[in-house]
Amino acid sequence: MSTAAATVLAYLPSPDRGVWYLGPVPIRAYALCIIAGIIVAVVWGERRIVARGGPAGAVTDIAVWAVPFGLVGGRLYHVITDWQTYFGPGGNPISALYIWQGGLGIWGAVALGAVGAWIGCRRRNIPLPFFADAVAPGIVVAQAIGRLGNWFNQELYGAPTTVPWGLEIYRRVDPSTGIADPLGGVAIDHTAIEIVHPTFLYELLWNLLVAAVVVFADRRFRLGHGRAFALYVAGYTLGRFWIEQMRTDFATRVFGDLRVNVVVSAVVFVGAVLYMVIVRKPREELAPPPEADDSADADADPSSVDLSKGEPEPSLAGKSAEPEPDAERSP
What we know:
Blueprint: H1 3-10, E1 19-22, E2 25-28, H2 29-51, H3 58-81, H4 83-87, H5 106-124, H6 128-153, E3 167-169, E4 194-196, H7 199-221, H8 227-244, E5 253-254, E6 258-259, H9 260-278, E7 285-287, E8 315-317, H10 325-328
Antiparallel strand pairs: 1-2, 3-4, 5-6, 7-8
């Protein structure tokens, strides 16, 4: 087999479509990837927050607020930074609402998602930095899973290339009309019209590496007060800075010819690093409420506990609380 043939066989294929139909209902791969990422982030965050003394179910409760806020924020950031696509000459303003066609800006999702998380944390009496540290690695893994949606949509790729892992791009059409439809169409002919850098794959792999680094550093250095989250932000922006410059899709340009997300990544990276350098507090833990014991805390003020509301919420402590001897006995 010739070297040229071996190289061609090594190219990565694209899916022939990104949408399937269950009767009249469209099943979109992009949406499924986003949902799968959210589930992974919630499940993993739940395990991490419980391991730190947090109450079971807290991440799910907070996610009810954070996820919708994050989706809206992500879409707003995308529309604002690529406003010409929707509001410029030939644009369709209504398509700004078509979130299923792709387009979620991570910094809008993080910013507005943090507002939703803050609301949820206040309702559960959990400090926001504590929550952010617990969910940090799950968020970046969710981003990695979400990048698979770009693969199905055949979007956000790089320049033409001859590297063996180049991505094949197919011409997709509406099967009923034959009209080109890159997002909702089907690739009838699997002959590649272009071989490009799979920047979605580069970012996916980078995100998984960042998740591993966050988990390792969090265990090794017991990061707290938002530093694990800041490490995730710094790691992600470091990779996004160079991957963004490889992409060839349309993007708003600032400061001459810089893509806006390159500038944002640089600014956010500096902010995240400064936060990690300045904040030096030890990791906080949530101490679970003590079990009821008639012989313990004889001098405690009984009015401080409202029995009608069940057990009090966990309290914040500077380190893991050692259990009292009476708390280890069964009541």
